[in-house]
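Morning run. Coffee first, then this:
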Amino acid sequence: VVLGLAILGWVARDLARLATAAREVGEGRLDAPLSIMRSDEIGELASSFQHMQQRLRTDLLTGLVNRDVIVRSIAERLRRPRRAGDAQPFAVLFIDLNNFKRVNDRLGHDAGDRALVEVAARLRAAVRAGDLVARYAGDEFVVLLDAIGSAEEAELIRRHVEDVLHEPLTSLGNTPATRDLSGAAVGLAMHPQDGDDAEALIRRADHDMYARKRAAQVAGGA
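And here it is:
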């Protein structure tokens, strides 16, 4: 009887952990921790649940984190100084690809998907190990630059990202018809001067991106 009660208690505790994690995911906390190490049916259920969490956090095409995760990550970064005394500034980049509609129109959606996968890989390689790259929507990407020493440092990273994305996309083939299907406008927002919440920082970086895109179009027309 004692052994049976102990086993029931062990099972009940793990089921309670699963229920708590499921409730948190239902409330939008997709990274709710779940630590259950078992080899029985409950262990299989926990493993399936963790796989589901990963899929909910990930953009399936590019493998980057998705929009929900980047917004929550920026919000978490905003809370960090209040908890740990980390007052170091950080920055947000908003990236919109140039002429991406032409890729789908000229070459088809499969080519568009290949282009997005290549851009995602370039962005991961262009930023630092502690930064977070997300596919925000369509051909838009957002990067959280976790710790920035100055506005000048953020500007250098922005320019580096622009340079990396300016190179022709090898997934499209280096032909005259595809050479203008590359490049991106990259907007920048700094915390704390450009906003004090995640949505405000993303919106400010988005506005900066459009301003740079319009300026490039005017310069090209001139």
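The chain has a mean pLDDT of 82. Good start to the day.
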